[in-house]
Structure formats: C-alpha cells, structure tokens
Specification:
13% strand; 3-stranded antiparallel β-sheet; 33% helix; 5-stranded mixed β-sheet; 530 residues; globular
C-alpha cells in the first residue's frame, strides 16, 4: 500500500470519548475480588434506548442458578518477546512512569461500533487484544514494574453480565484478572483502579502515549520542561519521544514477528489466488465482488484485512488509494489489487499485483509493466544492512525515470528529472518506493526521520518495495493509448544479514509468469477457504 507519511510532530486527531467507569468494571477470579463489587455498578450498565424494562421478578430470576467456569489458559509462547520489549522500553526511560493505553471501542454510527482493533504499540508491549486496557510501567529502582489495567470478567453479583452491552451474555466471556495474568505473564488489576493510579503520576516524571484514549490523556497533564535550544528531545516533546522510541524499537522484527508476518503473507497469497479463480476473462465483474472474496479469506485465515482493500479496474488503478471499489472489470483492461491479510496476532501483509483481465498483457501494457518490474527488482537487489532508505528510493525512482524517458514522456533528461529541485518524473509516480511493515501496514510511523527515512536499513527490518507508474485518464501530457493505465508491484521484503528475502514470493511478478499464474488459477476453479 503506497505510503503517505506525515510529520511525527503533529498530534493525531481523535474524536472518540470514554470515561473511567463509564461501563461497569467487573472483578477478577478470587472471591475477595468479587466481594469488592458494589451493587451500584448496575446503575452504570451500558444499555440502549430500545432495551426493555425488566420487572424485579425477572431480575431476581436472572441472578441465580449460574455455574462458575474457568478458562483453560496457559502462558502464550510469545510472552518472553513482550517482556523483552518492555525491558527495552524500561531501559530507555529509566526512573519515569510510562502509560500506554490501547484505546476504547470506536463508534461507527449512533449506537453501533466498529470491530475493535487494539492499539498497535500496546499490543507490541503486552499481547492483549481487549478494549480499554492500559499498561502502566512504574520505576522500581532497577527497572519498571508493569501492570495491566483491564476490564475483567462480569461479576454474577450484579446485573451487568446480562443487562450491559459489555456483559458476558452480550459480547462473550472476558478473562478474569488471574486468567489474563497467566496468559500474558504480566500483573493485572481491574480497570476501576486506573483513575487512582494515574492520579498518583507526577506529570514531570510520567510519559503518556497520547491520542488513543481521551480519558488517559486527560488524567495525566502533559509536561514539557524548558530545555536548551537545539535539544532533539525538546523539539520532539516528552510524550512524542515515547511514541518515537517505541516505533524505533519496532523497526527490528524478532523471529516470532517474522513468523507472524509470513503467516499473514501466506494467507494473502491464498486470497489473491481465490480472487483470480473467480475473475472472468470475457465479462465484467464488480470490484466489490473481488474485494469481498479476498475479505472472506482474510476473516477465515486471519483477523481481518490489514487495511481497506484497493481493487482498481481500468482507470481506477491510477488512483493510489482507490477504496470505493465501485467499478467493474473490463476485458482488455488491467486490474490492480493492493490487499493484505492481518493475521490473528495482528501483523499484516501488504501486497499489490496487476493482472490483465483478458489473460494477456497488450504490448503497451507489458512495456509499462516491465518498467515497474525492473524498478522493483533493482530496489530489492540493493537492499542489505547499512544501505540507506533513500538509496533504495533513488534506485527504484531512477529506473522509473529511465523508463519514462524511453516512453518519450520526460521533458528533460533523466538526470535533471531526478534532481531534487526538479523531480518532474514524479508526475507519474507520486508515492515513494515503500514503507516499514509489521503490526501496522505503515509500521513505525512515529520513528524519527534520522532513524527511518533518513536512516539506514538493519537486519530484521521488514519493508515493502512498491514502485508504480500511473497515467491519469485526463493527463494531456501522455499519449491517449497510455491514459488510464496504472501499475504497481508490491512485495514484503525482509532484510537479512547479507541481503534481502522476498517474503511474498509465493505470488509471481514477471509479466509472463503473471499470465501463466492467472491461467492456472482460472483452470483450478473457485474455492472456499478451509
């Protein structure tokens, strides 16, 4: 997916709201914990305007006769990975309290919500997927004590479990405090204790990952001490520095993360195959049909799609982030698909392929495709530890500029077009060569420029390589036969000790191989996941 990065000094705009205790925060497993739950919590149960009024006789009946149960949980295999990440963050901010929320559920419309997707930095540090949770790391002299504040299982001593939209009979069973602690290897406390914990945080010795949970943002005042001019930390801001350091730690993927990415990428390959198998060569089909077929694979094999699928038929392929997907394929035209499965542990793939709907590229389509393929291959070939991010960019862009010159489109020489004061070739390729990939499709987005765009690649980095050429249908500076052609080829690449590995090599890239693959998939016929 083409990357549109923003300056990390700008705060993200958020419109969601939540309050501590806005829904009842039940208790954990131990009877002593359950006894602390007040009957007043039933007054804060999250209900809707169309819910019925229940008579007291019904309420009394619902409060009895329930069997207790426990979940058969054990420590997850990745628990040591999360602990190691928290230790690295602790070392970076010795003596300071760190607050990392996941965020609340987001409203889609009125009283319906979007499916909850936890905050990526929070997941990176804890592995927890539940809404509203907050990680608090307090200094202890030799490091930090980490506590996960969470909304535990509904108590059966009040009506929340069956009346509240957060209750067990509405959304399913939540973990108890003990179950979550066992599963994630971290101390847990009920969310109802969070307000007091944050009230005890001194602003000058606390950093908060802001912009995710308004209640957390409001509970700890932002503090920016006066610092000497030119101090990088002062320019960035204390809380923004926390976000930057977490992003920079995420640049290097450990073995478990690479395996998660590979699983998501393999599922993505299967999703592309599913789409190819139902793509007719001789009649139009809706872009949304293709989007839906891929989405079925994503929900079956993973958590969901990692981002809104871009399915651009014909001239829609020239729109970089075409996610309306309201068009139809046409025989003789090209189809661009930029799609990725987000795995069950939330690592996402990001792959783009262009196929000829009729099954064969026309000579002109192939010429443009081969330029983009040569650009991508040149970029992949140069990737290794120590190479700068900009070196990869310049390598890809020069091949594109040379190809544009061969097409007779550049009004200046290739060297002049590549000059940073000119960049005229960018008219037909607005985005960069790629971006980091991980828990977010545009991963590590808060990293400082000197560690990312102005930095060097390191072993364990995973990034996309995705050059493209786009000739808009109304562009009078290109011949009519080129207008409406858009081509991007994107793969997910792991930086190794001496080069690079294409993790998405399960999908072909060369024009002739794409044609052969499409023919083979069509011959195999439609299939359902499973």
């Amino acid at each position: 997916m083409s990357d549109e990065r923003t300056d990390i000094t700008s705060e993200p705009a958020r419109t969601e709201s939540a309050q501590f205790g806005s829904a009842p925060a039940p208790v954990g497993t131990a009877p002593a914990e359950e006894a602390q739950t007040s009957a007043a919590q039933t007054d804060t149960a999250r209900t809707e305007s169309h819910d019925p009024d229940f008579p007291e006789k019904f309420l009394a009946f619902m409060r009895q006769g329930w069997q207790d149960s426990t979940l058969p949980v054990g420590p997850r295999p990745e628990v040591p990975n999360h602990a190691k990440r928290r230790a690295a963050l602790s070392a970076a901010f010795s003596g300071e309290t760190l607050v990392v929320p996941t965020g609340p559920e987001k409203v889609r419309a009125n009283d319906t919500g979007y499916p909850f997707r936890p905050g990526s930095d929070f997941v990176y540090l804890t592995g927890d997927h539940d809404p509203d949770s907050v990680l608090v790391m307090r200094p202890n002299g030799s490091g930090h004590d980490a506590v996960l504040y969470m909304r535990p299982r509904s108590s059966r001593e009040n009506d929340e479990f069956f009346r509240s939209r957060d209750g067990e009979l509405w959304v399913g069973r939540r973990h108890t405090l003990a179950e979550k602690a066992t599963e994630l290897g971290i101390e847990t406390r009920p969310l109802t204790e969070l307000a007091d914990a944050l009230a005890d945080c001194a602003p000058g010795r606390t950093r908060v990952l802001r912009g995710l949970d308004p209640s957390v943002d409001g509970a700890v005042r932002a503090y920016e001490p006066r610092q000497a001019d030119g101090d990088p930390a002062a320019r960035l801001g204390r809380d923004r520095e926390l976000a930057a350091v977490i992003s920079e730690h995420k640049l290097v993927k450990d073995e478990w993360e690479i395996s998660q990415l590979q699983e998501a990428i393999d599922a993505t390959v299967r999703g592309f195959e599913d789409v190819a198998r139902i793509l007719p060569a001789d009649r139009p089909v809706a872009e949304r049909l293709l989007e839906g077929v891929f989405g079925l694979r994503a929900r079956h094999d993973g958590n969901d799609v990692g981002y809104s699928s871009i399915v651009g038929a014909g001239e829609h392929a020239t729109i970089l982030h075409w996610i309306r997907n309201t068009g139809h394929t046409r025989p003789g035209e090209l189809l661009l698909m930029d799609m990725g499965v987000e795995g069950r542990n939330l690592y996402t793939a990001d792959v783009t392929r262009v196929v000829p709907v009729s099954g064969t590229f026309s000579p002109l389509q192939r010429q443009v495709y081969d330029i983009v393929y040569a650009s991508q291959q040149a970029g992949i070939d140069v990737i290794r530890p120590g190479v700068t991010f900009k070196d990869v960019h310049r390598t890809c862009m020069r091949v594109l500029a040379e190809g544009l010159a061969d097409l007779g489109l550049l009004p200046v020489s290739v060297d002049e077009a590549m000059d940073e004061q000119s960049m005229l070739y960018r008219r037909w390729t607005l985005h960069g060569f790629g971006h980091m990939l991980g828990l977010d499709v545009h991963d590590c987005a808060n990293a400082r420029k000197e560690q990312y765009r102005d930095g060097t690649l390191g072993e364990g980095y995973v990034l996309t390589v995705e050059p493209g050429l786009y000739f808009q249908p109304e562009d009078e500076l290109v011949p009519a036969e080129l207008r409406g052609i858009g081509i991007r080829i994107e793969d997910d690449v792991l930086v190794t000790g001496d080069g690079a590995v294409n993790l998405s090599a399960g999908l072909p890239r060369r024009a002739d191989e794409v044609e052969e693959w499409l023919d083979a998939q069509r011959a195999a016929g439609p299939r359902l996941p499973g």
